[in-house]
Amino acid sequence: MSTVLVTGGTGLIGSNICAQLIEAGAEVRALARPGSDTGPLHALGATVIDGDITDAASVRRAAEGCELAIHSAAVLGGLVQDIDEHHRVNSGGVAAVLDAAEAVGIRRVVTLGTTTYFDFKDRPLTEHSPVDPHASADPYTQTKRAAYLEALRRAEAGLDVCVVIPGGTFGPAPAVRRAMEAPSFNLRILLAIRGQIDAVARFPIPWSLATDVAAAAVSALERGRRGETYLAFGPAHEVSSMAELLNQACAIAGTSHRVRDITAADLDADPSWRAQIGPSLEALVRQRFPEPYFVNDLTVERLGYAPTPIDDALRTTVAWLEATQPREAVS
Asked: What is the pTM of this model?
């Protein structure tokens, strides 16, 4: 396989991407900020390039000599969102990667998106769903929406770029510390198992095992097509709320603790819940969703995508958490 530029390689999905690429025989050049935890990447055998996704010059430097690229770096939609940071990293970062790809002749870029900016209130989400012109105004959704539209614009102009959309992603990763940082689902699973989380926002989530998302991104390097979008979700019949997933994990772990849903009615009755869940999750709680949530036949056919059943994914994750998270690690 070729030399591949990977951004976000110190994260949950990105470190799994690096691991799978290296296992397949690729040379990985991972762009990482100085001072970040790059030990897992070095252990995998990746070449770490100091730089920042917001610095076009360092992205261009990392891209030199690469034939392919996977862009997974992003700021996530946490409780507190800095609009300037989201613009720099999410929308600015994808532009920097695509500019570098055009400049050095990278033959394909795979970039990762999110579900929150698609219009699928009245019909299932598919690989052809349009972008919602009235998407939530929170910084995460707006900047990821801008990044997605920029990728489609570059594809229309001739750059070979395609997009992989993960669901709610959890599971083991080589980069253990980053894979556990808030607002990760791994951390929420651990807190639920330890009885330290009692209620979470209710909305349907198409869950994804991190290794499955990584496999979709790696497959898209060779099997994807310019301008296409792929949905790297778990099985369609296993879409559930966060509380349902956490309670399934608790049952697997053998703990009696259970988590309840925070609904739109709860938010209206007690405004303090709004401050606890943040703007991105409040928008999702209030959004309408179709049944079924999604149909990803194109992804299955084009990428040979075969997701792990959620029960198996959770059993793998719970075992990994038990092996990697000492009791004192989370208060």
From this structure: 0.94
